[in-house]
Amino acid sequence: MELANRVKTLTPSATLAITAKAKELKSQGHDVIGLGVGEPDFNTPEYILEAAEKAMRNGFTKYTPAGGIPELKQAIVNKFKRDNGLEYTTDEVIVTTGAKHALYTLFQVLLNKDDEVIVPRPYWVSYPEQVKLAEGKPIFLEAKEQNGFKLTPEQLKAAITPRTKAVIINSPSNPTGMMYTRQELQELGNICLEHNVLIVSDEIYEKLIYTDDKHISIAEISEPFKKHTIIINGVSKSHAMTGWRIGYAAGPSDIIKPMTSLASHSTSNPTSIAQYAALAAYSTNEEPTKEMRHIFSERLDILYDLLIDIQGISCVKPKGAFYLFPNVQEAVIQNGFDSVDEWAKALLEEEKVALVPGTGFGAPENVRLSYAISVDALKEAAKRIKRFVMNHQ
Ligand code: PLP
């Protein structure tokens, strides 16, 4: 069967591929340490499970409005006010099947053929694919490692063309853990406003920050910024709820409304039970999130110190998310490999440590390590990586 052109260039998620390989080795009885995971290793908090169970028992197992139940939309509006000082109405919010589907729906609504979306590189693997699926063109701009993986205003300005529809800002970032300051966001945002470019602000890691820096949503800088921004967020990372599939988008209602119409024909609605679970997540205190952040923060410090001690590996210390994105190019060369992909493959085969080559994120000198596993496993992983590098000197 001849398939549609749109899937011919689709690349499978790099993160899922390495996780599958690691699982295969594990099932063969190997002691594999997986640093590829993109989800918190904590259980969804008990009070959220209870709310979901109650929702089921109370019969909330039917279709809901396409854009989400009014109570959850209101809870999201309240969350924006509380956490970000942002005033939205429920017409300016859509609840989606994970943040991923919020982004997918947004690009479907926004882009015509060959419309350009600026994607800072390294990027989260799904951005370029989703833009392409909407017939748009991802325009990659290198957020240089020497610049802390941040895009500069000059770079952004130079890349804007009459076809530029949007720019993606992901702070804190997956895979680098980088965060923009208010000043930096202001400068980038000014350029977007000047050229009427929509800002897509993916804030899914908002709650996972390990420095004293406060999360800044670019939309909170000014009212004109807010009018030019679509915020993407969700409960997957903040409440250890990846499997529940609840995300959302907030922004001008003339974009949210067609997104809701599109969702009504694609998903119908996000799972009813999961929506009640998310409602509980946003209606209760943030203790579980704080605890999770505390544990991640300790792991980050431990793994970072162990990694930079390995010859040929350097690393910009992340401020948020739960990944390290070290540059291993020197080690790759010293160890006699042609590419980071080969180096990572050999590391998995010889030492049974699974990490994700940066190639999938548009950064072929780096690898991504997730620290969503125990401290003991992280220490053992670092020991094995060090041994691998030494053995290949
Ligand atoms: N955006 C970024 C940067 C992510 O890393 C992820 C998940 O890995 C998502 C969005 C999607 O999150 P969700 O589970 O809500 O679809």
From TrEMBL:
PROSITE patterns associated with the record: AA_TRANSFER_CLASS_1
Enzyme class: transferase
InterPro entries: Aminotransferase_I/II_large (IPR004839), AspAT/PAT-like (IPR050596), NHTrfase_class1_PyrdxlP-BS (IPR004838), PyrdxlP-dep_Trfase (IPR015424), PyrdxlP-dep_Trfase_major (IPR015421), PyrdxlP-dep_Trfase_small (IPR015422)
GO MF terms, alphabetically ordered: pyridoxal phosphate binding; transaminase activity
Enzyme Commission number(s): 2.6.1.-
A GO BP annotation: amino acid metabolic process
Cofactor(s), names only, from the UniProt record: pyridoxal 5'-phosphate
Key word Cell wall biogenesis/degradation present: no
Stated family: Belongs to the class-I pyridoxal-phosphate-dependent aminotransferase family.
PANTHER family on file: ASPARTATE AMINOTRANSFERASE (PTHR46383)
Protein name: Aminotransferase
Organism: Lentibacillus halodurans
Lineage: Bacteria, Bacillati, Bacillota, Bacilli, Bacillales
